[in-house]
């Protein structure tokens, strides 16, 4: 494990045994219902939680020289509801004051390293300003996604009106930790054709499902299978950082998975599921029985018709190898992007400083019009045009011509020819559920798996999550929706895991996604499908704005550029169950949404 719960191994074993032995205790519980083996009282009386800062508990492994202690401010320097990033000499920490109590924890979001001091503090947690992940200020535990890791926490005491923090040096450097996890108690032969939990897909839904099961004390076998040849990796980065390797994008290593008894079967394609015998059949003939099944196969590219489908320089961006090939073939050459999806546009942006020319062929005249509205779409389109990207409409295309296994050019109806040394298809996706058609698991007319609020399908013991599902969305009166966000897939995985263990819960999160182009990031929170108006504050031309999407008289979602942390603050408001009225954002005064709680 990383962060506070790190090797040496004897420490890890002690944590796991403590979790299993103390499951039913009520004192010192962490938010996941487990007794913290490190629960204690701070000198000022505030309850603390699991951290490797307790040198009295682990005297063999933690010595005074492993710690740093520093006076960081006067007790009156922070008001209630304020945060400050403080320097301890060996690293920095986030100091928080809420309800008269001081707490301290890691200052960077473990997801992408965002400075949490610029985030939103509310009701016992801090929400990341970049992508909306939430961390409990008393425990450091991650409470909402994206991301897999939690934050280390540090001891705080007050002496003579000075606030003093004592922190483990290693935790200050790592700025993250994994929650303690149980191990598989059974002796399992890896060739055994049975798994108590079988997970199809190694994306965020599948990975979070497996880790949540272990965090919650599940001690039976977990097998996760994937068509990928790599351990789980950060797929959203593929289109933003085309030259990154699978190693650089890795979310969890094989060692991590093995240490926590999460078996990963790579390059395994499921071709059928037999729900009567509770078994999964793989393309290579392997059959594996299960007790609980979680389907998180994600999406696959929408098929497109063009001549010469076996051409080597046309890509659907799916893997690190695809991304690397695109970057290599585009170097000083001509790139054509078909489709104005977020992935397609991110690839176009990433290629502008590599390729000789970049042409984008879209279905709509304005990119992102359906998701972000015409005004925002046009403003972003201008940014692309300023970076020499040319736009064309798909209905202008006459044919795509290839020779000798290579796409060579795209011919427009006007007679204009676009040279195409590399082509990326980014025209949307469909659910990867073809193997379920004869299974008895219910699919809707578009191929999505329908699930209930606990992520269970119509078949007992079979769950699904991520891009492949239609699930009840509480803010829309439990209308079943598909929200293919990286963040939402994490939530589905956790809900499914808890449901498998008989701890039924439901999706309680605000959808959150982001897109990065030319060093600028679009942040978006809420569910804006069917919006009927857009209220824009700020300056679209300068790309410093916030756009509120409304249905009738209510704000249902928000997007921004260069306006942090307003999207996270809106997510916090919506997540609390409150509504934001259209009239509240029409006035131009949105100061009530701007966080003033950091220093």
TrEMBL record:
PROSITE patterns: RIESKE. InterPro entries: FAD-oxidoreductase/Apoptosis, FAD/NAD-bd_sf, FAD/NAD-binding_dom, FAD/NAD-linked_Rdtase_dimer_sf, Reductase_C, Rieske_2Fe-2S, Rieske_2Fe-2S_sf. Residues 70-165 form the Rieske domain. GO terms for cellular component: mitochondrion. Pfam families: Pyr_redox_2, Reductase_C, Rieske. GO terms for biological process: execution phase of apoptosis. One of its GO terms (molecular function) is 2 iron, 2 sulfur cluster binding. Keywords: 2Fe-2S, FAD, Flavoprotein, Iron, Iron-sulfur, Metal-binding, Oxidoreductase. Belongs to the FAD-dependent oxidoreductase family. PANTHER family: APOPTOSIS-INDUCING FACTOR 1, APOPTOSIS-INDUCING FACTOR 3. This is Apoptosis-inducing factor 3 isoform X2. It comes from Pundamilia nyererei. The gene is aifm3.
């Amino acid at each position: 494990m990383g962060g506070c719960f790190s090797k040496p191994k004897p420490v890890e074993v002690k944590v796991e045994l403590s979790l299993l032995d103390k499951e039913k205790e009520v004192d010192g519980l962490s938010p996941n219902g487990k007794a913290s083996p490190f629960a204690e009282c701070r000198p000022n009386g505030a309850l603390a939680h699991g951290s490797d800062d307790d040198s009295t508990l682990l005297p063999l492994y933690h010595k005074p020289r492993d710690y740093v202690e520093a006076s960081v401010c006067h007790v009156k320097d922070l008001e209630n509801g304020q945060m400050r990033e403080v320097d301890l000499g060996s690293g920095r920490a986030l100091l928080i004051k809420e309800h008269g109590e001081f707490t301290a924890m890691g200052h960077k979001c473990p997801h992408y390293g965002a400075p949490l001091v610029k985030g939103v503090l509310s009701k016992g947690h801090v929400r990341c300003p970049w992508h909306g992940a939430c961390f409990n200020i008393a425990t450091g535990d991650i409470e909402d996604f994206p991301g897999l890791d939690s934050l280390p926490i540090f001891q705080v005491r007050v002496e003579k009106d000075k606030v003093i923090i004592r922190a483990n040096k290693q935790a200050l450097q790592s700025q993250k930790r994994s929650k303690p996890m149980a191990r598989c108690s059974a002796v399992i032969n890896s060739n055994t054709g049975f798994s108590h939990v079988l997970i199809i897909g190694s994306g965020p839904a599948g990975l979070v499902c497996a880790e949540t099961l272990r965090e919650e004390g599940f001690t039976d076998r977990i097998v996760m299978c994937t068509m990928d040849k790599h351990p789980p990796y950060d797929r959203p980065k593929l289109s933003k950082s085309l030259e990154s390797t699978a190693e650089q994008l890795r979310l969890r290593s094989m060692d991590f998975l093995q240490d926590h008894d999460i078996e990963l079967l790579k390059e395994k394609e499921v071709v059928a599921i037999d729900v009567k015998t509770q078994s999964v059949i793989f393309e290579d003939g392997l059959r594996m029985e299960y007790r609980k099944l979680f389907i998180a196969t994600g999406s696959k590219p929408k098929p497109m018709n063009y001549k010469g489908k076996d051409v080597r320089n046309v890509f659907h961006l799916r893997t690190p190898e695809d991304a690397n090939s695109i970057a290599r073939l585009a170097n000083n050459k001509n790139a054509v992007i078909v489709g104005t999806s977020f992935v397609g546009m991110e690839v176009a942006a990433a290629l502008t400083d590599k390729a000789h020319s970049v042409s984008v062929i879209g279905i709509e005249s304005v990119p992102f019009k359906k998701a972000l509205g015409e005004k925002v779409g046009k403003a972003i389109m201008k940014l692309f045009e300023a970076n020499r990207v040319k736009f064309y409409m798909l209905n202008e295309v006459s044919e795509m011509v290839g020779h000798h296994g290579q796409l060579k050019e795209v011919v427009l109806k006007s007679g204009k020819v676009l040279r195409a040394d590399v082509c990326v298809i980014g025209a949307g996706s469909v659910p990867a559920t073809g193997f379920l058609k004869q299974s008895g698991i219910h699919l809707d007319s578009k191929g999505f798996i329908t699930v209930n609020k606990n992520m269970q399908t119509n078949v007992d013991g079979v769950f699904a999550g991520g891009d492949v599902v239609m699930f009840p969305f509480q803010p829309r009166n439990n209308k079943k929706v598909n929200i293919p966000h990286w963040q939402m897939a994490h939530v589905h995985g956790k809900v499914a895991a808890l449901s498998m263990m008989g701890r039924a819960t439901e999706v309680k999160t605000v959808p959150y996604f982001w897109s990065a182009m030319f060093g600028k990031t679009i942040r978006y929170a809420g569910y804006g499908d069917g919006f009927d108006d857009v209220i824009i504050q700020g300056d679209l031309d300068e790309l410093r704005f916030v756009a509120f999407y409304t249905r009738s008289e209510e704000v249902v979602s928000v997007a921004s550029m260069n306006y942090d942390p307003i999207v996270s603050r809106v997510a916090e408001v919506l997540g609390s169950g409150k509504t934001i009225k259209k009239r509240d954002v029409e006035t131009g005064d949105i100061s009530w949404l701007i966080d003033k709680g950091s220093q």
